[in-house]
Amino acid sequence: MIDFKNKGFFKLKQADDYAERVVDLLVDGEQIIASFKSMRDGVVFTNRRVISVNVQGITGSKKDFTSLPYKSIVAYSIETAGTLDLDAELELYFSAVGMVKFEFKGEVDMIAISRHISQAIL
């Protein structure tokens, strides 16, 4: 599992094509909502969970996939981008894992992500 507390790779930018990396992991009825990537690593939001991808090794052929189901979220926090600070943040608090933080750069509709998470957990 990815060590979210000591990882600095989650400065993410929207990348719709990154979702292709997790297509084989999806279950019946699961749909991709949005996908983001940093240099090699990324995160994909589906209608049921967040899938974090940690690409490992020199060649990048080894990958660690961490599935974070929305049903395990006990609280969350969003920070939208501002005029001077263009980064946005999402903090998810999972019952078994603890806090998972994702940082986004560029234009990200954090309100839409928040709405989707709220719909899944409330």
UniProtKB/TrEMBL annotation:
Top-level division of the source organism's lineage: Bacteria
SUPFAM superfamilies: PH domain-like
Ranges where the Bacterial Pleckstrin homology domain occurs: 14-120
Alphabetical list of Pfam families matching this protein: bPH_1
Name listed for the protein in its UniProt record: PH domain-containing protein
Source organism per UniProt: Pseudovibrio denitrificans
